[in-house]
Specification:
By secondary structure, this protein is an all-alpha fold. The protein folds into two domains: 132 residues, Orthogonal Bundle (Tetracycline Repressor, domain 2); 123 residues. Helix content is 84%, strand content 0%. The protein is built from 14 helices and no strands. Helix 6 runs antiparallel to helix 7.
Length: 297
């Protein structure tokens, strides 16, 4: 091997490892979380303030960065515990993840988690405590809670919406009925998707011996659980609509009703992982639209 090839290889390895890490931490989810936090702060919590003034406050950038670090750490510790199962359920993506060792995942998780907690200290003692509790929650979920049927899905969903609850703490706000209903809706949507994902990954869960909801309760009963969550989502929308009917965001919820009803139709016919994955894709779209609908609030 020539010296030029050797240099190219030495440069290539860190780049490939970095790309693998970005894949493991699901950079697209991190990007969506970042966008949603900024949109929530700009268009909901500070909608009466000039956008340029709000974006000049360094604290909102510190808060978002801390949540990004903690969330990335959460994905890494999940990858650490789920490596074998992902080899079965997602061999094409996990193969790429093998470039990064489990030790590297663990070390990077520790660094990101510490940074996420410490950055909270630059904002306030409340955020420092909130970030510390979030870090503990993420670890508990990966180490213990995710292995428990339903408890794992509920805790994963709660951790997903917790960063938006943290914005309440950051802004020192009192609970708002409209926003509580909106968060409840997001909670039901995300919880539905978490359970659907268990239907998609049924094969891997069976092989590694994980007691997921469909394994414990059966596919038919799990479909009833998913259906009940879809109905709760519709109930949350119809409860919320009277308070936001005069706002442009109401258009999103009309579209959301159509997507949920279509998903109910698909659920009735779904039997295979690929069929459940279609519902999962519909709910991905539902959550993506929810993020950008914040600008219409």
């Amino acid at each position: 091997m020539s010296s030029t090839d050797s240099k190219a290889t030495s440069i290539k390895k860190p780049v490939v490892k970095l790309l693998a890490l970005l894949s493991i931490v699901r950079w697209y989810n991190i990007l969506l979380i970042t966008i949603s936090l900024y949109l929530t702060e700009l268009f909901i919590f500070n909608k009466e303030t000039d956008l340029f003034i709000t974006i000049q406050h360094p604290q909102i950038h510190f808060y978002t960065l801390s949540i990004v670090f903690l969330t990335m750490g959460g994905y890494l510790i999940n990858a650490f515990y789920d490596f074998e199962k992902d080899l079965i359920n997602h061999p094409e993506t996990t193969y790429f993840g093998r470039v990064v060792s489990k030790k590297t995942c663990l070390n990077t998780y520790v660094v990101l988690t510490i940074l996420g907690i410490l950055i909270g200290a630059l904002i306030s003692k409340k955020i420092l405590l909130f970030n510390a509790l979030l870090a503990i929650g993420l670890w508990l979920y990966s180490h213990k809670l995710r292995k428990k049927p339903l408890t794992g899905e509920v805790s994963a969903t709660f951790l997903t919406v917790s960063s938006f609850i943290g914005l309440y703490v950051y802004n020192n706000l009192e609970p708002n009925r409209t926003l509580i209903l909106f968060v409840t809706y997001i909670f039901t949507i995300d919880l539905t998707r978490e359970i659907i994902k268990k239907m998609v990954s049924l094969k891997g869960d069976l092989i590694v011996g994980e007691k997921s909801i469909p394994i414990l309760f059966g596919i038919k009963f799990t479909k009833y659980i998913i259906l009940s969550q879809m109905m709760f989502s519709l109930l949350a929308i119809f409860t919320l609509l009277p308070f936001i009917i005069d706002k442009n965001i109401a258009y999103y919820f009309i579209i959301a009703i159509a997507i949920i009803l279509f998903s109910i139709f698909l659920l009735n016919k779904s039997k295979t992982p690929s069929q459940f994955n279609k519902i999962n894709s519909a709910y991905k779209l539902l959550l993506l639209l929810a993020i950008f609908s914040i600008m219409l609030y």
